[in-house]
Amino acid sequence: MSRPLGAARRMPRRPVLLGTAGLAMAAIRSAHAAQYPEQTVRYINLFPPGAATDLLSRAYCATMSTLAGEQFVVENKSGAGGTVGQAAIAQSPPDGYTLGLGSIASLGIAPSIYPSLPYDPARDFTYVAGIWQVPNLLFCNAAVPVRSLQDMVALVKANPGKYLYGSGGSGTSPHLTMEWLKQVAGLNLAHVPYRGGAPMLLDLIAGRVHFAFDNLASLLAPVRQGQIRPLAVTSKERSPLLPDVPTTNSVYPELEITSWGGLVGPARIPAQIVERLADLTHETLKAAELNRIFREQGATPWWLPPEEFAAFQQQQQRFFAGLVKRVGASAN
Hints:
It is a single chain. The chain is α/β, with parallel strands linked by helices. It has helices at residues 5-10, 13-35, 52-68, 83-90, 104-113, 149-158, 173-185, 197-206, 220-224, 271-284, 288-296, 306-327, and strands at 41-45, 72-76, 98-103, 125-141, 164-167, 190-193, 211-215, 228-233, 258-266, 300-304. The protein has two domains: 39-134 and 258-327, Bordetella uptake gene, domain 1 (D-Maltodextrin-Binding Protein, domain 2, 3-Layer(aba) Sandwich); 135-250, 3-Layer(aba) Sandwich (D-Maltodextrin-Binding Protein, domain 2), CATH 3.40.190.10. Strands 1, 2, 3, 4, 5, 6, 7, 8, 9 and 10 form a ten-stranded mixed beta sheet that branches. Helix 3 packs across helix 10 (271-284), helix 3 runs antiparallel to helix 11 and helix 5 (104-113) crosses helix 12.
């Protein structure tokens, strides 16, 4: 039996209405993205106040606030080598108003150090932009009788099991760098992990631990005040801030590592907001005041757009998986 012509004509109306509504919603989302941000943006830093990442994050967020016209507010959420804060970012709404640090520790190293993570680095994040790179510094308590990396190796080998090293947490780049040094130099040096670099530094100055690696950014003041003694930097070349301190690769050619940090958010942030954040970050990294602060902290502005940052994270995860396997590092 044939259908009435009127019914045949009315059938497409629902798909057409749905399609029109979808286009309208897309236009609304696009308009909101163009106006982003329209309120305060929460930036989660993975380590405690006073740590290198905290100093650099606050300088970055201050410049972003000026350019964006809304505040980017730093919130410190530390623990487990940065993975506590990284998980908080992953579990946030994907609206662009909760972002944070993506670090070498929590996105490059942690997948190979921790048996289970509350996030998947490839699946659970939006990679927005690279922000900085900074070398690690090997240093010791000022009372320890060494003045070079070679002195340290000789002292520890002559006193196996006597000396301790601290780190800002298991799975951080300073922790893994020391484990790497222990392997290539054949050292017996016990690990004492802390909840961030700042409390570790206080204990090292007090003599409770003897050696450590940490980001150069947080160590310049205690070096200048004579509270700690620098022994070597992990960058390819000497730091202009500490030109008399040799590189680790001048003694052990393979021992070279640079920490990094970038802007990430939870997965599925709208593409227009990601583009806006990447553009703001690019402009922020050109700011003269930010560059001055970064240089003073031993950091280098490091611009990477979203796709390149995501690819870099995957490359770093593969590299550290191999390194962790070679040195036998674990989260303890």
